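ping. complex inputs:
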Amino acid sequence: MDDLVVQALSGLASASSLFLVASGLTVIFGVTRVVNFAHGSLYMLGAYVAWSLVTHGVFAFAGPFWQFWGGILGAAVVTAAIGAVIEVLLLRRIYRAPELFQLLATFGVVLVVQDVALWAWGAQDLLGPRAPMLRGAVRILGLRFPLYELFLIAVGPLVLAGLWLLFHRTRFGVLVRAATADREMVAALGVNQALLFTGVFALGAGLAGLGGALQLPRESVNLHMDLSTITEAFVVVVVGGLGSLTGAFLAALLIGELSAFGILILPKITLVLVFLVMAVVLVVRPYGLLGRAPQGLHASSGPPDPLLLPAPRALRQLGAVVLALLVGSAWVLPDYELSVLTEILVALLFAASLHFIMGPGGLASFGHAAYFGAGAYAAALLVQHAAAPMWAGMLLAPFAAGLLGLVFGWFCVRLSGVYAAMLTLAFAQIAWSTAFQWVEVTGGDNGILGVWPDAWAQPKPVFYLLALVLCVGGAMLLRRIVWAPFGAALRAGRDSPLRAEAIGIDTFRTRWMAFAISAAFAGVAGSVFAYAKGSVFPTYLGISRSVDALLMVLLGGVQTLSGPLLGAVALTGLQEQLMRGTDHWRLLLGATIILLVVFFPQGLAGAARAAWEKRA
Amino acid sequence: MTVLAVEHLAKSWGGVQAVAGVSFSLAAGEVLALIGPNGAGKSTCFNMLNGQVRPDSGRVLLAGRDITGMAPRHVFRLGVGRTFQITATFGAMSVRENVQVALLSQARGLGGLWRPMAGQKAAEAEALLDRVGMLEQAARPCGVLAYGDLKRVELAVALANTPRLLLMDEPTAGMAPAERIALMALTARLAKEGGIGVLFTEHDMDVVFAHADRIIVLDRGQLIAEGAPQEVRADPRVREVYLGTGATAGGH
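pong. complex structure:
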């Protein structure tokens, strides 16, 4: 009983930290409609800057008390300034771009910040000093409880109260609330939007920085803080309802306590618990606990999608030439190059499968790796348990992945926009932790080894040709479906659900089936990858693989069919080259992504198409 | 023959009784106008007819069959076409494709995964577009069309299932006066030729009095007048709530 109380208290302390990050994220989203992937990076920067300010004694002249607390507050101010710079230099240029592009740009920032932090503070974990006056512990029901944790428990409600006052008692706050409700109207009333957006972004960044800085006495500062934080913050914000501060607070309490008790009660599924809760909340309340259905969120987000046009003759000819070169490579290139090409082919089909549901389907999946992994594991498990031949594994893969897509998709396709994206992410995390924690079946972290092709396909050139047939064939089949009546019905439901239903289209069923088709093709890609590598691991279903697919589709361009193919080649090639050529590949990749988003907001293929049409 | 019969239809939003027990009927080939001042309940009434809004009480009968509360996509299958007050088309698809999708949906051919849509129902789609005067623009995306043209595309789409009932919510809003008359003249002709019952709401009294066979007037959720244009025009209650308030011919 006693330790339950202590556990509850430490849950409250984590809830406070979560709320600090999530509040900034939700305020930024409310006003600017930008889903800021870099929010975790700002949190990490806050922690690093605080560490530097405190350990170098920048505020030491004012005594030991201010040496610490001055450092913490200073870090929040510095982070706010960094946020303002990011807003002015980057986000301001892309407010009119589609939601997902903004997300992509902020992801570029994540990569850049990671390398900058590595360069400035090194790879080792940094330990901060304890907080003056809060070093000790108190006895609660006979158990020691750190004073600093008690302090943190108080910080959450204090910040909530402070934000409430700010939003209800100041002109700035009233404008922020007005812009959250209807930003077109606020602009029409003559409010300087640029200033308001910069202010809001700085405020949100400052809150993230404060959250990070306050972790200094609690845990070490390291380079993994950004992604672990952003995932949790997304969960909190989505569960609470995008744009709702009170919702974020409630959700932070829920998630904080859940994590604290989850370890005691259900240690087997701790990794998945948070995402399970998010999935349940989104299924029951599609817009989060206190969120409201987005109104006109997409209406003003840029010009209408361009028409889907058949590829011009020249592009078809180019495609044929490339295909011929790819086939010819099997006889010319050495084994290593062929396995790199095989990987690119797998990436190509994976990207095409994601594009199918994202472009024509209008549903951004942030967890597409789940179906890639499902295909890979289906094949691997069949090999391991039934010693099945390769063709059986490759045949099973699309069915297994498609079935998983049917189950997860039934929930996901009901939602749209960011909520749908987050639900797909939640399901992917559930799939990932199943593979990770169900050690008896999946081998856990060690994966499944010995998933080799049949003897006839063992030679690299043969397997490469097989991959070429499956991946290019799959991508062409998907393309065919987009042009077929089913694809038209899918695009119709994306463009105007109201009209689609009025002419007899079951938009739910259409999107659901499309989701399953997309999953099945991702599964094919996964099985080819499994046999190419000879093994499967939980990372096949991980977030970073999902993000890779998203990057490929967005880099190439959502609005053209050739976009994802180009994106897959560009990203895989870029990663390969950068990782081999430089230590700072993240910085370069991040900067490349940012530049591409700013200068080619329609993606590479979109830009190429625009140039082509101008010429014609 | 009665195409549409509405019996004691009612709907309230919160505490506001938007539609309070409205009954009327519509014969095949008849063009019926539903008019009334802003907030009279026209749109709510309209949206209950094709299942977009579920009525609190009352019945909607399509050629004798009860379709109350049926989902829009099922109502479509029974032969109801509709256009929207704010046009709803597929912006990233061409005008021709918009009509093709509707035609294929009618023929239950939208499940096809292999044969490209381009070659399916294209001639039929173009015939429909020709009827509404949109053939020249068949290859343009709907996303870039002028508003009046979108209204015409919507009409072509609504005609794709050879409907017996056509519901048109402000079909001529956003069009030039000459275009309005032309579009409604076309609609009236289609109704007569095909025996289609047409129900439309409209703010433009020129259009209403020129093309409606009969008019029903709604005010604060209730039917206050019904009859031929001349009778309605002369009705003192209608003049009081509607025409007498300054909303004269051609106004909005």
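Chain B touches chain A at residues 50, 71-74, 76-77, 82, 84, 88-94, 97, 100-102, 104-106, 109-118, 120, 141, 143-144, 157, 160-161 (CB under 8 Å).
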